[in-house]
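pasting for ref
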Amino acid sequence: VVLGLRRSIAERLGWIGRNDITIQDIHAATKAGEFRLSMTSATQSNSGASAYLGFLYAFAGDPDMLTMPMLDDPAVQDAMRSLLGQVDRSSGSSGWLKDAFLANPAAFDAMINYESAVIEANQDLVAAGEEPLYLIYPANGLAVADSPLGLINKGDAEKTAAFLGLQTYLLTPETQGRLSALGRRAGLIGLDATSADPAVWNPDWGIDLKREIAPVPTPAADVIAKALTLYQTELRKPSLTIWVLDVSGSMEGEPLGQMKAAMRLLLDPDAAALNLLQPSTRDITVILPFNHEALAATIVEGGAEADLATALARVEGLTASGGTDIYLAVAEALRLIEPMAADGTLQDYLPAIVAMTDGVSDTVNRDALYRQLADTPWAKGIPIHSIAFGLADEEQLKAISDATVARLFIAGDDIAKALRAAKGYN
């Protein structure tokens, strides 16, 4: 798991050719405004979790093993909170973060991601005539996403034979070579790339295959669990999330019931904790129902159970009626954010609008919304994610998401799963 940084920025910082850049150096550079940082969520993405645990090791002084007392250390927590506070873009998927970087290069300076994802990004950037990323392998707190292949043997001889056959195939020199050609490390503990193609493992991108890689060890399970809970409730950059909920007539019956059940995952403290979706004391959560007009918003600041219960009661009491105008509702969500953009407090949050709908929207306010996005600089930095279910017009929703470096989630028959995924993006 590496830092992929625009090469021009790495040159300006004097980081080209160095192997002594620490997590503390990265923290200091982001805090000084040298570059914008993006990474995936530690509670929703393996690369984010791996990087986060590496950061904790670095701030704890590079111990042999991360322990509970280290997680409780105020100095470690303050440093971690400060670093995560510099994150400009978050995501629940390593692949989506890479794709978003490629699709919107002006919106990103750097991303913490898998080495293989940065290699893939560079191949596409170079092919498009764009500036590549320079890979920084932190001198401390370096995490390796080593994913062993295993089988839980339940006495099924046929499945065991199939597993062993797959294992044998993956370990053949031919397959190992194909993996290496894709920018994946293969071999013993996944770190052997001695016969690598320099067009893939390009030294000009900062890749040094002769460098010894010493990853941080995996902590005990209870330490990981506590670290992830701390991330979600205390250490990550606070979220500002506006949930734009369709309550038009087409939502009557099962669709509305499914949406209410999905929102319980966020607003019921026990369900939220089970899915590592609980709000922090600094989060702002807004419930904004809509049909042919935007209805009154319910705003929760922090994660107090009484306030969450009030918001959940509002959701449970929603009824379906009227037409559908998602463009008007998203414009209202932006209006709610505008005061924070004006007073400068918006930069202290990871903002996102998440629109959930099962229908085809009226388009009378579509052009007005796109003009608002085009003419308002701060609005372009607000991801407008969409969750489509039922008969939702996916093209309408994708167009909104594409305009703001956001993602369309197709819920199918599992709105709750789509909601969990969407929340991982801020």
